[in-house]
Amino acid sequence: MKKEIKKQTPILPKAPTGIQGLDQLTGGGLPKGRPTLLCGSAGCGKTLLAMEFLVRGATQFGEPGVFMAFEERIEELAQNFASLGHDLNALVAQKKLALDFVRVERSEIEEAGEYDLEGLFIRLGHSIDRIGAKRVVLDTIETLFSGLTNAAILRAELRRLFRWLKDRGVTAIITGERGEATLTRYGLEEYVADCVIMLDHRVSENMSTRRLRIVKYRGSSHGTGEYPFLIDEAGISLLPITSLGLKHPASTERVSSGLPGLDAMMGGLGYYRGSSVLVSGTAGSGKTSLSAHFAAAAAARGERCLWFAFEESANQITRNMRSIGLDLERPVRQGLLRFHAERPTMSGLEMHLVTMHKQVQEFQPRVVIIDPITNFTALGSVLEIKAMLTRLIDYFKQQQITALFTSLNSGGRAEEAPEVGVSSLMDTWLLLRDIESGAERNRVLHLLKSRGMAHSNQVREFLLTDRGVELRNVYLGPSGSLLTGSARGVLEAQEQAQSLVREQEASGRTRALERKRAALEAQVAALRAEYGVEEAELQRGIAQGAARTAMLASDRVEMGRQRQAVVKATLKTLKTK
Amino acid sequence: MKRNPASEDSTAAFEQTLAQIGDGHYVLRLYLTGHTNRSLKAVQAVKALCEQYLKGRYDLEVVDLCDQPERAQAAQIIAAPTLVKELPPPLRRLIGDLTNTDRVLIALDLKPRKN
After folding, report:
1. Do residues A223 and A296 both lie within one domain?
2. Which entry of A388, A457, A540, B27 is 20 to 30 Å from A153 by CA?
3. Regions in chain A scoring below 70 on pLDDT
4. What's the pLDDT tens digit per position in A404-423?
């Protein structure tokens, strides 16, 4: 019972190719112990991919391999791969690799009777046994069809060969030339049913692009799109768009944008580390200046910054930034800032991608600036550029690199739609805009989005001063329109005047109050004085009254005295009283 | 029957080769894979043919690749059986059980080609 359960869920073992991107695309590599058909037109990189599978198998995964070449001589192979940095001869000497050139010369061969391909089987079997090979490449076995005329025998033998390879348990790549209507000219796909990979080489807009597609992978999920790949001195690198998953870490660390005003719009902290920032705007709206601030801030933190300039030379950028008071030469001297200036038309999109990867791997920056991404539009369709940027952004996120991309919006376009259509890939989107009013063009900055943080919804005026970029508050005019530049200045002056008036009014009122109090106090004083006068008068009246009474009394006494004789008795009575 | 390919004296070997070409000497090698029916047929056919047409002026080596697999690569063998005519030039590879005698004779330049 237990055994049965185990059998029900066998995981298809895979043989990793070690080729960047391909293993992610196939979820671990090619089907282990089974043959894989690799088809494509001439010169699309079949041999290279197959050889890289062997070389990496031998050097990285401890799986020796046999390369059976039907088209190229061993010396040619060794030479070709020496230019790609692989020393095949050394691997052969170490018994990690066996090379066998199978010469099929039609003019030498004469068929006389029945035959089979047992000779080839023994030959391959011997090579496998000699080095204990786990991997086999047959490149291109279809050559047999041009050397041998009996197609019936050939087909039967090929079928037997693929089964034999499976029985031997070797992971095999069989290459095949692409046919008119079929995957391979001789229909090898009939025999190899486990995994079919197609390579393609197309030229569009004078730039060639190689692409890889997994047509079929029995028993395994796989990326289904066409994935561009590159061949350079490091071999093949395939850059799947999303590597099949969004698994990059998300940091909560924040990095300053270099502008306190802008940081303030993002809760005072700036961007998230490892996030991608898009700065879009019309020509001359200050995209590069904003980037320069970011670069300078990174350098000030002691972090390395890599600047891909696709429009200006490094010198031009440093000179221009000096004019707004930013010294980018110092970080360059300190080794904290590196410019990689290149015309976008120098190479195709894929080459750019690889160059960027290499530069990043070399310099190990924590901040990358790409200025501008819109110049790539000369190199491919919007979709292709988007695919490329997606891969770039994924890569940067994996590396926890904070990336700032600038995008030029040409005049007539809708301003909230950057040309490359990548805004959905970005975590933070700053839009720089020119506002024309009152015979002026002024720059304003919008923070259109900033994932995962509270951010200001306010428009700010963006000033380029000789001390760098400054962000100012923007005023609303009476009709609700934005006031920037001198209009803002006027409004500011007006507000100042108004506040002066208000101040004056206030102090006036204070003075009036003072006066009133003074007046009241004066009134009080006057009243008091009046009262004093009245009191004095009254006192005097009282005193006079008393005096008069006294006088009256004395008058009477005098009169009595004078009338003594007459009124002695009266006086007596008065006295007794 | 066996010829030493790694002759010490290359000049002598060259001269010998020249002499052999001159007198129409044949150097043939038959590569087989085990004792199969096809192998037996091929051995019988080539032996009969040599006795009939090349008596006294041929070297024939029969190589069983099952015993000496390393020789398959050196001799550029794909199919089995394969009869390689190393001398006289041009080099020819006859593949099959050699039962088609006409084709064998033509390939060995023992019968003019039909045009």
Report:
1. no
2. B27
3. 1-10, 204-208, 239-247, 410-421, 477-482, 562-577
4. 998 887 655 545 555 556 77
Whether A270 and A180 share a structural domain: no
Q: What's the confidence (pLDDT) of residue A3?
A: 43
d(CA A483, CA A461): 9
From chain B, pick out residues whose CB is under 8 angstroms from the CB of A127: 73
B97 → closest Cβ in A113, A118, A122: A113
b/e burial code for range A82-115 (CB count within 10 A of at least 16 → b): eebebebbebbeeebbbbbbbebeeebbbbbbbb
Cβ pair A126:B73 closer than 8 A = yes
Element (H, E) at A356: helix A349-363
Nearest to A359 by CA among A307, A314, A302: A307
Look up the domain containing A228 and give its range. Answer: 9-238
How many domains, chain A?
Answer: 2
Q: Do the Cβ atoms of B41 and A148 come within 8 Å?
A: no
A260 and A314 fall within a common domain: yes
Residue of A nearest to B90 (CA): A108
- ipTM for this model: 0.80
Q: What is the DSSP string of A559-571?
A: HHHHTTTTTHHHH
Rg of chain B, C-alpha, whole Å: 14
> How confident is the model at residue A367, as a pLDDT?
93
CATH number where A58 lies:
3.40.50.300
Smallest Cβ distance to A119: which of B41, B77, B104? B77
Give the pLDDT confidence score for residue A556 in this predicted structure: 80
Asked whether A393 and A403 are in contact (CB, 8 A), the reply is yes
Q: Classify domain B24-107 at the CATH class level.
A: alpha beta
